[in-house]
Design goal:
Length: about 220
């Protein structure tokens, strides 16, 4: 027979059975367990072991499994070398736990809309955004696009971007061909690295131009 705690978690899963409900299920599950302070020393159980975003992801996987649905393919791990300064200055957010929370929330954003909403929130809470915050948001925009296109590495060279693709990813070959068509000066090397001339020598402007170009390959 199910324990009281198990029944409560199952009720939460059934109540929030729509796709994308992982966050709400996690929140209810944390209420059932007694999560304590998410950012302090009072974290408990699985949350403390794996972190909040990972915990939400694991719960969402459990929902799919219970519903008999196939799990989505895991995103490609992308190494980014964009040449951007990403460390938030202490003068912007003095408290370390708050800075870590900002890093984590940006890293968990999946869409441009989420990133724009986060920037607005942080600006209202902490003041005008420094360049490093804009860089973090831009960095995440490039990461999400690169993941979707099957890239494993995005490196900024002196004259060109070097985009490396995972040959086993279903989106990789179509993406490389689409980028070659969209950027006439692009070159695909024998090693499978796409060299894309920099649109600007300034790192932030160059990365923004790359982020704007990548959706054309989807």
């Amino acid at each position: 027979s199910l324990t009281k705690e198990a029944r409560a978690r199952l009720t939460a899963i059934l109540e929030f059975a729509d796709l994308g409900a992982g966050f709400r299920i996690a929140a209810r599950d944390l209420e059932i367990r007694g999560a304590g302070n998410l950012l302090g020393a009072e974290q408990h159980g699985h949350l403390r072991a794996v972190g909040f975003e990972t915990y939400c992801h694991l719960l969402e996987e459990a929902v799919r499994e219970l519903r008999g649905e196939a799990a989505p393919a895991p995103p490609t791990s992308v190494e980014l070398r964009l040449g951007l300064g990403l460390r938030l200055p202490e003068r912007y957010i003095a408290e370390e736990t708050l800075r870590l929370a900002v890093y984590r929330r940006i890293a968990g954003a999946r869409t441009d809309e989420e990133l724009a909403s986060l920037k607005q929130e942080f600006t209202e809470r902490f003041g005008a955004a420094p360049a490093q915050l804009d860089n973090l948001i831009l960095h995440q925009r490039v990461r999400r696009r690169a993941e979707a296109l099957g890239m494993t590495k995005v490196k900024r060279g002196q004259l060109a971007w070097e985009l490396t693709f995972d040959p086993t990813h279903p989106a990789a070959h179509p993406a490389a061909m689409a980028l070659l068509a969209a950027a006439p000066d692009a070159v695909l090397t024998p090693a499978g690295v796409l060299r894309l001339p920099l649109a600007d020598r300034d790192p932030a402007r160059a990365a923004a131009a790359l982020a704007a170009l990548l959706p054309a390959a989807q």
